[in-house]
Amino acid sequence: MDPNTPKPIHRLNEQGYELLVNAVVDYALYMLSPEGEIISWNAGAERIKGYSAEEAIGQHLSMFFTEEDRAANRPAHLIATALNTGRAQDEGWRVRRDGTRFWALAVMDVVRDHDGRIIGLAKITRDMTERHESELHLQGLRAQLFQAQKLEALGQLTGGMAHDFNNLLTVIIGASALAGRTQDPKRIKELLGSIHEAGLRGSHLTQHLLSFARQRDQQQQVVQLENTLHSAQMFFSQALPKGMTLELQLCPPLHPILVDPSQLEMTLLNLIFNARDAMEQDGSIVLRAENRTLTGEWDELTGEFLIISVRDSGSGIPPDVLPRIFEPFFTTKGLGKGTGLGLSQAYGFVRQHGGTIRVDSEPGRGTTMTLCLPALLYQAP
Ligand SMILES: Nc1ncnc2c1ncn2[C@@H]1O[C@H](COP(=O)(O)OP(=O)(O)OP(=O)(O)O)[C@@H](O)[C@H]1O
Ligand SMILES: [Mg+2]
Fold it and tell me: What range(s) does the Histidine kinase domain occupy (predicted)?
């Protein structure tokens, strides 16, 4: 062929477009009037929703919605959004002709004629049921894993707690016996004070244990760390052997964060367990919290963050181990000692909240694990 001959330009005629639209079977692709009436229908729509073109054309979009969504005016709301903004997106359950439900990912775009008048809405729907179900399944598995981990942590905590409860009971028994033997009202008052104090401590501990053991409710709450860490400190200390202490360093006022408090507690506990295992001797673990503005230096995060770090003066992490520590099931601890899930839980938690986790470690000098969580900042009115 003569190379100078211009290449022919192929254009689709109307029939060609129709063939194209009908060749798409993985997407329901159809047109609505601005009022939401169906005016065209393709093979994908028939495949996904189960209605033939004759059955669908002329009907209203709302026929695919669940009763709850219809009652909530969801179809009308979607149409109004598309007409007002040019586009609407939605994800949710829809109903097929046979009454079964599918999880739809739907987009609606306004279609205009050459003069800019709205002539209808182009609607594209995808059946995402399989993906949705596998996501739900994964969420279920994660929840199970979390619960199993929590039970294991509870086992470790209650061991320490039994010891602490014993101490509290010793105080109560001893002080009440002494109070029974003395006539001095001042002394009796002092002893009653100690009994009361021991009782309060015990009840606090039990409350914390119970709230920790509760099934996960996955509830995001505004957490103000300076209010919660002091009571958590006593609880966390249960996991530490005698001679090892947990020191709090808080730099208030700390930014509030929006997290599931039980997951945050689990994360901190995992870091504290790791610090404890790395030290194996007397010493202090430092839990520090402060605000920081990030400008991309950590995982390209920018903005206001709450930084929570757990520092130990333990063995440190060897360079060949370091790249693997966040892998699920990676552990250097002996059989039955570590599951290798602690840091992968911590990693999942921070990523899920749009944050990150950093590790600074030097063999022989200790490790600092730093959680970085986006601050919840209220806009000034
Ligand atoms: N503070 C630390 N000091 C030294 N090594 C650490 C520290 N934190 C984590 N590691 C290393 O990272 C590995 C993985 O930690 P991770 O918490 O995920 O699992 P684990 O502690 O081994 O087991 P689990 O937490 O399930 O009981 C540990 O086995 C250890 O080698
Ligand atoms: Mg661990």
Answer: 160-377
